[in-house]
Design a protein that fits this description.
The chain is an alpha/beta fold. The protein contains 10 helices and 9 strands.
Length: 274
């Protein structure tokens, strides 16, 4: 998929952040859009930003943790657009909690969206991509799918899971040679509201201070820049996309001996907590 003009793209989590930026960038490139989000107001805002560009835009409120809802949406997309060529499984949430302090309810909530939402979107759309004769699956992992961080065990588990799931998918698609491919995306700090909207358990206080403020200071890449880099990765059929300069640092750290980077995290976290 080197050219997005005239293609049809489906995006989850399109009501804000990277999902919205991808929708706007694809609309500028002449790509028809099928957008979803659980945030009805945010989704409507994104639709309004994309309309009037000569492309067809449809939208549906979808909870990606609901398997039946995602599969129904995929069928609706094909019914409305005739076919679909690109699925971006982008919807995500954040949770700060220690392993001991984290509730099972919060863990289920995050995994339902960040991991199972990706699985649902992939399995729901993959047959339609193959039917179109060409296509691409884009699954959003994170730099926390490369390196584990204290207070982020649930997020780490989901994003490492997305990485393994999508890497295996890419190998299967390469073996099959069916005209469909996939890319695992590892964004670094992107200027979105995910940290400010995160669920924070009181158990996280022992690891660091204001997570949202710390994230905002570290987030150096705009959603618009991230969207451009993701689409470049798709057009070049990359297996993995590191988004932002900090993602490249995380990738390098992930290649170090586990004990080395983990001890550095322990020491740094203890200093911040003093």
């Amino acid at each position: 998929m080197q050219d997005f003009n005239g293609r049809v793209a489906a995006i989850t989590g399109a009501g804000s952040g990277i999902g919205r930026a991808l929708a706007e960038e694809l609309a500028r490139r002449g790509c028809h859009l099928a957008l979803s989000d659980i945030d009805e107001a945010g989704l409507a805002d994104t639709v309004g930003r994309c309309e009037g560009r000569g492309v067809k835009v449809t939208s549906e409120v979808v909870d990606v943790a609901d398997r039946d809802a995602v599969h129904a949406w995929a069928d609706h997309v094909v019914a409305d657009h005739g076919k679909v060529h690109l699925i971006v499984n982008n919807a995500g949430v954040a949770l700060g909690a220690s392993v001991e302090g984290m509730s099972y309810e919060d863990l289920d909530w995050l995994m339902g969206i960040n991991f199972w939402g990706v699985v649902h979107g992939t399995k729901a759309f993959l047959p339609h991509l193959k039917a179109a004769g060409e296509g691409h699956v884009v699954n959003i992992s994170s730099v926390f799918g490369l390196v584990s961080i204290p207070s982020q065990s649930a997020y780490n588990a989901a994003k490492f899971g997305v990485r393994g799931f999508t890497d295996a998918l890419r190998i299967e698609l390469d073996i099959e040679d069916c005209g469909v491919s996939s890319t695992t995306v590892h964004p670094g700090g992107i200027k979105t509201a995910i940290a400010r909207n995160a669920r924070m358990d009181e158990s996280v206080a022992g690891f660091s201070g204001d997570h949202a403020r710390e994230f905002d200071k570290l987030a150096r890449t705009t959603p618009e820049k991230a969207a451009q880099q993701i689409l470049t990765a798709v057009s070049r059929n990359r297996r993995r996309a590191l988004i932002g300069p900090d993602a490249k640092v995380f990738d390098l750290v992930s290649r170090l001996p586990a004990g080395l980077y983990q001890r550095a995290l322990v020491q740094g976290t203890r200093r911040r907590a003093r």
